[in-house]
Design a protein that fits this description.
Layout (H helix, E strand, L loop, with lengths): L1 H28 L2 E2 L11 E2 L3 H16 L6 H27 L3 H19 L5 E3 L5 E3 L4 H19 L5 H19 L3 H21 L8 H19 L5 H4 L1 H20 L9 H7 L4 H25 L1
Helix pairs in contact: 1-2, 1-7, 2-3, 2-7, 2-8, 3-4, 3-8, 4-5, 5-8, 5-10, 6-7, 6-8, 6-12, 7-8
Length: 310
C-alpha cells in the first residue's frame, strides 16, 4: 500500500504544480478554446491541460519503477501503454492546436492502438459471457482490442463538455479499477491506476467550475486510452461499462440521436451528448456535473459489489 500512496501523491503533486505552467504556456502559444453558441464559457480558456495529466502520470510511473521490480510481462505491457499513450497525447496536442479532420484523428488513434496491441502484445484474448463462460477471441483478438481502445478513447472524449465532468468521472473509474486490482492481487496494475487517478484529480482542481483550463483532446484521449489499456491488464473489460456507466450513457445518447435524426428526421434529445440535453433543459452546469458524478459513483459501487460477491 505505501507504494500506491506514493504513486498517487506524486501524480497528484505533479499535476497540481505543473498545470499553472501549462495554463501560461497555452496562453502564450494560442492553445485556447474560444466561446461560441454551443459553449457556456464567455472568454477564451486554455485547452491543452492534458499535458499536465500526461506528465503527472508518467513521472509517477517512472518514480515507482525505481522502487519496485516488475515481471518482464508487466514491464512490456507497461512500456506499451506508455508508448501508445504518448502517441495519443501527441495526436491530441496537434488537434488542440490545428483542429485535425476527424478521419485523420481516428487514423492516428488506430495506429496508437495497433502499436500497443501488436507491438507490445497487450490484447483481449478472452471475454466472459453473461453465463460466466469463457469466449476465446483467437484471430479476432487483435481487431477487437484495437476497437476497444479506440472506442473507449473517443467515449471519454465525448464527455469532456462541462467543467470537471470528464476528469471527475475518469477519477471515479480509475479509483474503482484500483480497488479491483488490489482485490484481485495485481499490484502493478493497481499502482498504474492509482497514478492515473492522482493525475486526473490534481488536474481537476483547476478544471472544476469555473474552469481555468480544459483538458482538451490532449487529456480526454489520453484518459480514455489509459483506462482502456488498464482495463485489459486488470481483466476488467466486462466490468468497465458498469464502472463507466456515464461513458456508456453519453455514447449511447450520441448514437441514438444520430440514428433517430437520420431515420425519422427527429431528435430525441435537445442536444447530444446527453449532458447538453440537461443544460438546455435549464440545469446549472454544476448540477449536471454533480449528478453525473453521483451516477458514476453508484456504477462504481455496483461494480465493486459484483467483484466482492463473485
Amino acid at each position: 500500500m505505501p507504494d500506491n500512496v506514493l504513486a498517487f501523491l506524486v501524480a497528484l503533486g505533479v499535476a497540481l504544480l505543473l498545470t499553472p505552467a501549462v495554463i501560461a504556456f497555452a496562453r502564450c502559444t494560442g492553445a485556447l478554446d474560444k466561446p461560441d453558441a454551443r459553449k457556456v464559457h464567455v472568454r477564451p480558456i486554455p485547452r491543452i491541460g492534458g499535458i499536465g495529466i500526461y506528465a503527472a502520470f508518467m513521472v509517477s510511473i517512472l518514480v515507482q519503477l525505481t522502487f519496485i521490480d516488475l515481471t518482464p510481462e508487466y514491464m512490456t505491457s507497461l512500456i506499451g501503454l506508455m508508448v501508445g499513450g504518448t502517441i495519443i497525447v501527441a495526436i491530441g496536442i496537434i488537434d488542440d492546436y490545428c483542429d485535425l479532420p476527424a478521419k485523420v484523428k481516428l487514423l492516428g488513434q488506430i495506429i496508437a492502438a495497433a502499436v500497443v496491441v501488436i507491438g507490445f502484445d497487450v490484447r483481449i484474448d478472452v471475454i466472459t459471457d453473461p453465463l460466466g463462460d469463457y469466449i476465446y477471441l483467437e484471430f479476432l483478438a487483435i481487431p477487437a482490442t484495437i476497437f476497444w481502445i479506440v472506442g473507449l478513447t473517443n467515449t471519454v472524449n465525448l464527455i469532456d463538455g462541462l467543467d470537471g465532468l470528464a476528469a471527475g468521472v475518469s477519477s471515479i473509474a480509475a479509483l474503482t479499477i484500483f480497488l479491483v486490482a488490489m482485490e484481485e492481487g495485481i499490484p502493478p496494475v493497481a499502482m498504474v491506476t492509482i497514478a492515473l487517478a492522482g493525475a486526473a484529480m490534481g488536474f481537476l482542481y483547476y478544471n472544476f467550475n469555473p474552469a481555468r483550463i480544459f483538458m482538451g483532446d490532449t487529456g480526454s484521449l489520453a484518459l480514455g486510452g489509459a483506462l482502456a489499456g488498464i482495463a485489459i491488464l486488470s481483466r476488467t473489460e466486462a466490468l468497465l461499462p458498469i464502472v463507466g456507466i456515464i461513458f456508456v450513457c453519453e455514447a449511447l445518447s450520441v448514437i441514438l440521436q444520430v440514428a433517430s435524426f437520420k431515420t425519422r428526421g427527429k431528435r430525441i434529445f435537445r442536444m447530444s451528448p446527453i449532458h447538453h440535453h440537461f443544460e438546455l433543459g435549464g440545469w446549472r452546469e454544476t448540477r449536471v456535473v454533480y449528478t453525473f458524478w453521483g451516477i458514476g459513483a453508484l456504477g462504481a459501487l455496483l461494480a465493486w459489489v459484483l467483484v466482492l460477491v463473485s
